[in-house]
Design goal:
Shape: flat
CATH superfamily of the largest domain: Glycoprotein, Type 4 Pilin
Helix content: 55-70%
Order of helices and strands: HHHHHHEEE
Strand content: 5-15%
Structural class: mainly alpha
CATH topology of the largest domain: Glycoprotein, Type 4 Pilin
Number of strands: 3
Largest sheet: 3 strands, antiparallel
CATH class of the largest domain: Alpha Beta
Distance between the termini: 78 Å
Strand order of the largest sheet: 1-2-3
Radius of gyration: 25 Å
């Protein structure tokens, strides 16, 4: 009986999937796949551009370790019962876990608000989407360099970090322009569909970085 119910359930799922495909609701089938495995593609594109700042990472780990030790010492003083290290690690892990959830929630809200303000015709197949993600990729590399070296990268330094020529060309075949103002933000610009810089359809991303040294 249970086996028959499983077979009926599988048949119903297959028929429902075919029905969604038949009426054009492909996204209903794509959404679970993207949610489950989309992060793999994202990491493959993003990880090569990450420049770890080991000094900051070490300082963070050290600060976390000191906080755990301090919490354990205070808990042993205030606890009426014997306090062991296991409880300290459990509570510390819970705090870190809650912090991670909070950061993830902020990211979801931010991205949802950003997508909600996009034009109705703005999709991942739209060149405007691709140019925004391309500019964001270059800016991510610039920010990683700035965090490590405490200054904005020169153009040749940024090109060493992002060596793929496709990353330096917008969807309309025009090279991105990268510039750093002496006392202002770094700027990456796409000339937009008209391929003319300084017009209304330009896509510009500014990022405040330390001044670039000569």
């Amino acid at each position: 009986m249970k086996r028959a119910l499983k077979i009926v359930g599988i048949v119903c799922l297959v028929l429902a999937a075919l029905a969604f495909l038949g009426v054009g609701f492909v996204w209903v089938l794509q959404a679970p796949v993207v949610l489950a495995f989309g992060w793999v593609k994202y990491l493959r594109k993003t990880l090569p551009t990450i420049v770890p700042n080991w000094a900051l990472i070490g300082a963070g780990v050290g600060a976390l370790g000191a906080a755990v030790v301090l919490f354990h010492a205070i808990a042993r003083i205030l606890s009426k019962e014997a306090w062991n290290a296991k409880w300290t690690f459990l509570w510390s892990g819970l705090v870190v876990f809650m912090f991670a959830i909070g950061a993830a929630a902020i990211g979801v809200v931010h991205q949802t608000a950003w997508l909600a303000t996009m034009p109705d015709d703005f999709t991942q197949t739209d060149p405007r989407w691709r140019v925004m993600t391309g500019v964001a990729h270059l800016h991510g590399a610039a920010m990683g360099f700035a965090v490590e070296h405490e200054r904005a990268p020169h153009l040749h330094e940024l090109k060493e970090l992002v060596q793929d020529p496709k990353r330096w060309t917008d969807p309309w075949g025009t090279p991105y322009e990268y510039s750093v103002l002496k006392d202002g933000p770094a700027e990456i610009r796409s000339a937009g569909p008209d391929r003319q810089g300084g017009t209304d359809d330009d896509v510009v991303r500014s990022l405040t970085l330390p001044p670039s040294t000569p």
